[in-house]
Write a structure and sequence with these properties.
heterodimer, A: mainly alpha, two-stranded antiparallel sheet, B: alpha/beta, Rossmann fold, 10 strands, binds adenosine-5'-diphosphate, binds magnesium ion
């Protein structure tokens, strides 16, 4: 990098250009979500393929053409606008697709897997603790929901307990994961996932191989599975699940971003990047890895509980290694450490294979090619994490 | 008055190799020690032992009366020992500020509660730290101060060294260990760096520094006292002029001490 690039980069911005910038950011985000909404809704192969092509074009060009770079930069500079537009877009999509069971189910699935990915982000992208047992912790949450769903405990509390249970179960793994490093730590988590699944299969209290029924989620006495209309509108009973799942992701997003933009985030990044330097400057490697691991598993557990309630059942197969890999792929494909990336990647990985149903035998080929292409042309993921810039927190007094 | 740092009989063995051989080293408050010796004589190992990266085999280490023998790196870091590394250990993907903040984290509020909810305290500490990091880096190079939130990897070698030194200084240590800070630099760059350090010295009169350095010019300019290691043993201790005249030191450097 030359000295010119290092020159102070804050041009005097007038309020007007700030407003324009926000508008551009909002339009971009809304457009992306509209594309996502169309993809969720699309049924004809032609439409799906056209959307895929548009998607590839957007991400291929984003950093190649000046306008693209500019817009990416603006989005990074205005996270508040991005988040607000995203929330509004999600509500709009949900309202537009309110009667479509399958579409809403997919929307909820994407949000819950993205929530799990948020947990994995804390663990792997921040603290550098590998976790190849994401689906296992997800399943733990669902089993807790199955066990406690009928007991009269308010379901919000059940979600919380599910998270706690996943975190506590993760304690079993904590020592071996802290003592080993890299591939070995990864192996430990793989072994744990396999073990848990085997345990669930032989455990009759937990329903053995058949698994268990999970009672549907109810919030303040409102049973989600019985909701078929809101006011004058007929809605799918998946609509409340889709909204609740998105809200849960919103909460996870908020927590992870807050941690990232705090000294805790600095500490986690230091522990991941350089254990020697981190410990010389007084950080306890074990403390921070453990914190990230437990918090991350709690998030995955909560997401798994809601997922189980939505599906109405859970079985040992929920804890399979393949699903753990899917969660990891979401993380890597989206860009380690960028939660919006995780959302986009969750759509790519969970929705696109479903949408390509009609060309059955080729769909996995197309899907695999897409993933390989993404990693070939964007090795650090669709939306790489940006360096942490605290300047907004320092200058902008309130907020 | 007792010294700030007192090591006695400090010994570090790697299997059959004795890398530090019963070292007695004292460093007073505000003193600058030039630590020299041929490659492999144990200078870096001494730093690694002092900062808790290696567990010493025998001896005693005290910092201001506090026993630091075989303590963990964290405890030692929190006791006020900071260092740079011979091979730079900056986190290049992270911003200059993140790198420097690491040097202060041990003293900051790292509770989850203030990270997540009660952000007031965090933001106050953040503002202070940004100010401090700006002031620190500005003395070394205003360009660094103006780009605190750019990745450390986008800076030149000499600026990276400066950032590493700022990271070590930001936590107001009592003892600063600098391991060949001028390695790979030109004469002019080395001189500039040492000017900065000397200017710094004026402002932190209590800070003790141990500097490992091969350039004798540098050693002469900034050290109050010199210590020479060879094969892990201290073979000389005294003022620079005496060092130049010492026969054992000369043979060690010329490789004649086999
Ligand atoms: N981790 C280690 N394991 C084994 N031997 C080591 C280790 N670290 C240093 N040594 C040995 O200790 C001796 C001193 O090395 P070092 O402290 O790096 O020297 P200097 O910094 O003075 O050049 C060398 O012989 C080196 O090979
Ligand atoms: Mg060395």
């Amino acid at each position: 990098m030359s000295m010119a690039d290092l020159a102070p980069s804050v041009p005097a911005q007038t309020a007007r250009s700030g407003g324009l910038a926000r508008l551009a950011v909002a339009a971009t985000v809304a457009l992306l979500f509209a594309g996502g909404g169309f993809l969720l809704h699309a049924e004809q192969q032609g439409q799906v393929i056209a959307l895929l092509a548009a998607f590839v074009a957007v991400f291929a060009l984003a950093e190649k053409v000046p306008v693209g770079r500019r817009i990416v930069g603006l989005c990074r500079a205005h996270p508040g606008t991005v988040n607000l537009t995203a929330a509004v877009s999600i509500l709009a999509i949900a309202a537009a697709l309110r009667e479509e069971h399958y579409t809403l189910l997919m929307m909820a699935t994407v949000a819950l897997f993205a929530t799990a990915a948020a947990g994995l982000t804390l663990q792997m992208a921040f603290a550098g603790v590998p976790n190849f047992a994401g689906a296992a912790f997800f399943a733990v949450g669902a089993y807790v929901a199955a066990l406690l769903g009928n007991t009269g405990i308010p379901h919000l509390l059940v979600l919380l307990i599910a998270g706690l249970a996943a975190a506590v179960l993760g304690l079993v793994l904590l020592l071996p994961v802290l003592r080993t490093r890299g591939h070995y730590a990864a192996l430990v988590t793989i072994a744990f996932g396999l073990l848990l699944r085997a345990f669930l299969e032989v455990n009759d209290v937990l329903g053995g191989p058949q698994g268990m029924k999970v009672k549907s989620f109810s919030l303040f006495g409102l049973d989600f599975s019985r909701m078929t209309e809101i006011g004058p509108y007929d809605v799918s009973f998946y609509l409340p699940y889709a909204l609740a799942s998105c809200a849960l992701f919103g909460l996870a997003f908020f927590l992870v971003r807050r941690l990232e933009t705090s000294f805790v985030g600095v500490a986690l990044d230091a522990v991941r990047s350089d254990e020697v330097a981190a410990s010389v400057f007084g950080l306890s490697i074990a403390r921070w890895k453990a914190t990230a691991f437990l918090l991350g598993n709690a998030m995955i557990g909560v997401a798994g509980a809601l997922y189980g309630m939505m599906n109405g059942f859970v079985n040992p197969n929920s804890a399979n290694f393949g699903d753990s890999l899917i969660m990891l792929s979401i993380l890597v494909l989206g860009g380690l450490g960028n939660l919006w990336g995780a959302v986009v990647a969750a759509v790519v990985i969970l929705v696109i294979p479903e949408k390509l149903q009609a060309i059955q035998e080729f769909r996995l080929v197309i899907f695999a090619l897409l993933v390989i292409a993404i990693l070939r042309f964007r090795p650090s993921g669709l939306m790489p994490r940006a360096a942490r810039d605290f300047s907004a927190l320092v200058k902008g007094g309130a907020k | 008055m007792s010294p700030l740092l007192a090591c006695s009989g400090l010994t570090m063995r790697f299997g059959g190799l004795t890398a530090l051989d019963a070292l007695d080293i004292r460093v007073g408050k505000g003193e600058t020690i030039g630590l020299v010796g041929p490659n492999g004589s144990g200078k870096t190992t001494f730093f690694n032992v002092l900062t808790g990266l290696y567990k010493p085999s025998a001896g005693a280490v005290q910092l201001a009366e506090q026993d630091l023998f075989a303590r963990s790196a964290q405890e030692i870091g929190r006791a006020g020992v900071a260092r740079t590394f011979q091979r730079s250990r900056l986190m290049l993907d992270q911003t200059v500020f993140d790198n420097i903040a690491l040097g202060a984290l041990g003293r900051l509020d790292l509770s989850l509660l203030s990270a997540l909810v009660l952000r007031g305290r965090f933001r106050r500490q953040l503002s202070e730290l940004v100010e401090r990091a700006t002031a620190l880096t500005r003395r070394f190079n205003p360009q660094i101060a103006a780009n605190l939130f750019k990745p450390a990897g986008s800076f030149t070698m000499i600026d990276r060294r400066r950032i590493e030194i700022c990271r070590a200084l930001v936590g107001s240590p009592r003892l600063l260990l600098l391991d060949e800070p001028s390695a790979g630099m030109t004469h002019e760059e080395t001189r500039a760096l040492m000017d900065d350090l000397l200017a710094f010295r004026e402002e932190m009169p209590d800070l003790a520094i141990v500097l490992v350095e091969h350039e004798m010019d540098v050693i002469r300019r900034i050290s109050d006292r010199c210590i020479v290691l060879n094969f892990g043993r201290k073979i000389f201790e005294g003022p620079f002029d005496a060092l130049i005249a010492d026969r054992e030191v000369q043979t060690a450097y010329l490789g004649g001490a086999q």
